[in-house]
Design brief:
With 331 residues, the protein is α/β, with parallel strands linked by helices. It is 46% helix and 18% strand. The chain has helices at 2-26, 42-58, 74-85, 103-111, 136-151, 166-182, 197-210, 224-234, 250-257, 269-283, 312-315, 318-321, and strands spanning 30-35, 62-67, 91-94, 116-119, 130-134, 156-161, 187-192, 214-219, 242-246, 263-266, 302-305, 308-310. β1, α2 (42-58) and β2 form a beta-alpha-beta unit. α2 (42-58) packs across α10. The longest helix is centred in the N-terminal third of the chain and has 25 residues, at 2-26.
C-alpha cells in the first residue's frame, strides 16, 4: 500500500510539473524597454542589470532591451522613445535627459495605453505613472557636507550641471541650501558643462584660472568629476581643489583611489532598474484592486532610495570595493 501511495504521489507531482511547464510555455511573450540618455554609460549598465534580473524573477516570458543615444541629447532620446513605441512594447522605463523634452512622447505613450515609469531622472510634469529614484535634494546635501568637511566655511565653490535637467538642479539646490545653512560665507559659481567630460574640463579650467578663491567643485552628474579632475591636473592644482562627484564608474573610482577626486555621492543604480521594472510590469497587469490611474495597474507614485558618500577610504576595503568595481557587461 505504501508503495502504491508513493507511486501515486510521484505521478501527481509529475503531472503538476507538466501542468506548470505547459502554463509557462503558454504565457504570451512581453517586451519592455529601458530608454536612457547616454547608452553605454556604466551607471546605466548597472540600472539595466537590475532590470534584467527583475525580468528573470518575473518569468522567461519577459524580454527586456536597453535603448538610447550614446551622447547626451534629450531630443534624440525622445526620438528613441518614439521608435520603441512603434514596436508596441508592454511598457517602458525612462531616465529623462531633461524635465520637459520627454513630456510629449511620454504623454502620447500613456494615452496609447503603454505604461511609463521614470527612474533616476524624472519628468514630473508628464503623465508618467511613477518615479523610482533618489531624493536629489538630500543627495546634494551630502555633497555640501563633504565640501565643508574638506575646505571649511570660507571660499568659493563651483557647481557643474546642465540647466533644465531636473535631477541636477535638485542636487545643485540641495548642495546650495546645505552650504547656506552651515557655511553662509561660501560663494557659489554655476557652470554649464553640457553633460560632457571635455566641456567640464574646459569650463572648470577657465574658472580656476580666473578665480583663485575657488576651493571646491561639485559635479551634479557622473561626467563632471573626471573633467574637473583633468582641469586641476593640468593646472597643477590637484592638491588644492576638493572635487565631489556624482555616481560612479571605472574612471571615477580610479580618480578616487588616486586622491584626485575627494568623494562621489552615490545611490544604487542596480536597485533603481530593478524596482522600475517591477513597477512597469505591475502597471501593465491591473488587478481587482482599483488603480488611481486606470486602465493601468496599481503602483506607488514615488519610490526613493538612499544616497551616501563614496571615498578612497571605503574603496581601500576590498570587500566594499568589490561592490562597485565590477560593472556589468551589456551586449
Amino acid at each position: 500500500m505504501k508503495r502504491i501511495l508513493g507511486g501515486l504521489l510521484v505521478i501527481v507531482l509529475l503531472l503538476s510539473l507538466i501542468t506548470i511547464t505547459v502554463v509557462a510555455e503558454e504565457r504570451e511573450t512581453e517586451n519592455y524597454s529601458m530608454v536612457v540618455f547616454t547608452k553605454g554609460a556604466e551607471y546605466f549598465n548597472w540600472c539595466y542589470a537590475g532590470m534584467q534580473d527583475a525580468a528573470k524573477t518575473l518569468g522567461n516570458h519577459v524580454n527586456v532591451e536597453l535603448q538610447g543615444p550614446s551622447d547626451w541629447d534629450a531630443s534624440q532620446e525622445a526620438r528613441t522613445v518614439e521608435q520603441v513605441l512603434a514596436k508596441r512594447p508592454n511598457g517602458i522605463i525612462i531616465s529623462c535627459a531633461d524635465e520637459s523634452t520627454l513630456i510629449p512622447v511620454i504623454n502620447r505613450a500613456i494615452a496609447g495605453g503603454v505604461p511609463i515609469i521614470c527612474f533616476d531622472s524624472d519628468s514630473p510634469d508628464s503623465d508618467r505613472l511613477a518615479y523610482v529614484g533618489t531624493d536629489n535634494h538630500s543627495f546634494g546635501a551630502v555633497a555640501g557636507k563633504a565640501i565643508i568637511d574638506e575646505i571649511g566655511t570660507e571660499g568659493e565653490v563651483a557647481i557643474l550641471l546642465v540647466p533644465g535637467a531636473v535631477s541636477m538642479e535638485e542636487r545643485s539646490q540641495g548642495c546650495v541650501d546645505y552650504l547656506k545653512e552651515h557655511a553662509p560665507n561660501i560663494k557659489i559659481n554655476y557652470l554649464n558643462d553640457e553633460g560632457d567630460v571635455s566641456k567640464a574640463e574646459q569650463v572648470t579650467s577657465a574658472l580656476l584660472q580666473a578665480n583663485p578663491n575657488v576651493k571646491a567643485v561639485f559635479s551634479t552628474h557622473g561626467y563632471g568629476a573626471p573633467g574637473a579632475a583633468a582641469a586641476t591636473r593640468n593646472l597643477g592644482k590637484t592638491q588644492d581643489i576638493c572635487i565631489i562627484g556624482s555616481d560612479y564608474d571605472s574612471a571615477t573610482l580610479e580618480l578616487l583611489k588616486n586622491k584626485e577626486v575627494t568623494g562621489t555621492v552615490i545611490d544604487d543604480p542596480y536597485l533603481l532598474g530593478y524596482q522600475a521594472m517591477m513597477l512597469v510590469y505591475a502597471s501593465a497587469h491591473p488587478t481587482d484592486v482599483l488603480s488611481a490611474r486606470p486602465p493601468f495597474g496599481h503602483v506607488p507614485e514615488l519610490i526613493y532610495g538612499n544616497c551616501s558618500l563614496l571615498t578612497a577610504e571605503i574603496l581601500a576595503d576590498e570587500h566594499a570595493a568589490a561592490r562597485y568595481e565590477k560593472p556589468p557587461i551589456i551586449d
